[in-house]
Amino acid sequence: MSFRLSSAVKTLQPSATIAAAAKAKALKASGVKVYDFTLGEPDFNTPAHIRAAATAAMDAGHTHYTASGGIPELKQAICQAYERDYGLKFQPSQIVVSNGAKHAIHNVIASLCGPGDEVIIPTPYWVSYSALVELTGAKAVLIETTPDSGYVLSPEQFEKAITPNTRLLMLNSPSNPTGAVYPVAALEALARVAVKHQIPVLSDEIYEKLIYGNSEFRSFASFGEDVQKLTIIVSGVSKAYAMTGWRIGWSIAPVELTKVIDNLQSQQTSNPCSISQYAAIAGLTGPQDSVTAMHAEFIKRREYVLDRFRKIPNVKFVEPGGAFYIFFDVSHYFGKTLQGGKVVHNATDFCTALLETAHVALVTGDAFGAPGFVRLSFATNIETLGQGIDRIAGFLNPK
Ligand SMILES: *Cc1c(COP(=O)(O)O)cnc(C)c1O
Fold it and tell me: Which atom number of ligand 1 is nearest to the Cα of residue 172?
């Protein structure tokens, strides 16, 4: 029996990062030691006081449906965290708590976009952005940013891409996959263009707590009331609190849009996990020293990885200012003979050959709209990183 699929899903591809991780897992299962750097999540366990809050929530009987957009206590905790950390004041009526930030992104796009609409997405972009836009029948308008600009979309590029059909600009700073953090002035310049043309901006701020060196995180909602009226912040507890499996994220938007998002979610999934919501409260309002400790570990790993990569000839990269990835250009090696006699011509072939020959798993830049590049996640311990980078260097420049 063959099914006639909806036009919406017919061209949908599986998430490339999840697919790459699955390939690495399959090789591991066959008994091979694999250096897996595809992970898009912290390797740490969720801090103990957060896990304890989940147990307490279960024991207290918080095991039922909640309000579809999340419990008031969690919305309050989210408001408190933004005021404490950034001096930003939001109302609980602006928040919908979802099944992870990815779900929040879907909610926003599905609420604003449909056939004939356009969404501006700077490349390199996170894998799901274009897929979620195209699911609604809208068009993803991809605008290239390059290493030379530090992967920053200029206000001129943004303005030029705007048409009468533009419904949304999607930003992600700090960025997955590049680690780029927009300078404050660059963000504000984009905010001015958004206000001038009244274009809503979805600002994916999921890596807000993972910032390095001189980089500075600024929420897109921090540039004044006229900007805030157009801003939809998306964030969550996955990355900062090592809570990817708990599936708690949120959107913060003007009240009228938040009502629409809440309606959509109430029909589609109802509330996110009740127990996870209580755990998220403990994360946001409890001691923040575990966030600091995990950040400190990421700082060490980043320095180690940068130091090692500087010594690999002909590999180019921009030092990541945030998140936990290094996104590097391997195009110099295309057409050359690599370890095991392998010759590759694009980043996807490169990842396949690297996995087969050196047993190192990376994600191809093709998945992020950046041909010639590959992404390594440093959300793993330094010993493993060291051994894996030895293997990458050996694969590129065989003796
Ligand atoms: C991890 C990630 C998300 C989604 O996180 P959730 O686990 O769904 O909360 C969203 N955006 C980017 C850029 C990410 O890397």
Answer: 13
What does the domain layout of the chain look like in residue ranges?
8-39+290-396, 48-285
Judged against a pLDDT cut of 90, whether residue 11 lies above it is answered with no
Distance of alpha carbon 165 from alpha carbon 140, whole angstroms: 11
CA of 163 to the centre of ligand 1 (A): 28
The whole-model pTM stands at 0.96
Cα-to-centroid distance, 27 and ligand 1 (Å): 26
For ligand 1, pick from 105, 239, 368 the residue to mutate: most ligand atoms within 8 Å of CB. Answer: 239
pLDDT band at 198 (very low <50, low <70, confident <90, very high): very high
Q: Summarize pLDDT for 277-317 with one digit per residue, the tens.
A: 999 999 999 999 999 999 999 999 999 999 999 999 999 99
CATH (residue range 8-39+290-396): 3.90.1150.10
The CATH code that applies to domain 48-285 is: 3.40.640.10
Q: Whose CA is nearest to atom 5 of ligand 1?
A: 101
Same fold, 8-39+290-396 and 48-285: no
- Each residue of 301-326: b (16+ CB within 10 Å) or e? bbeebbebbeeeeebebbbbbbbbbb
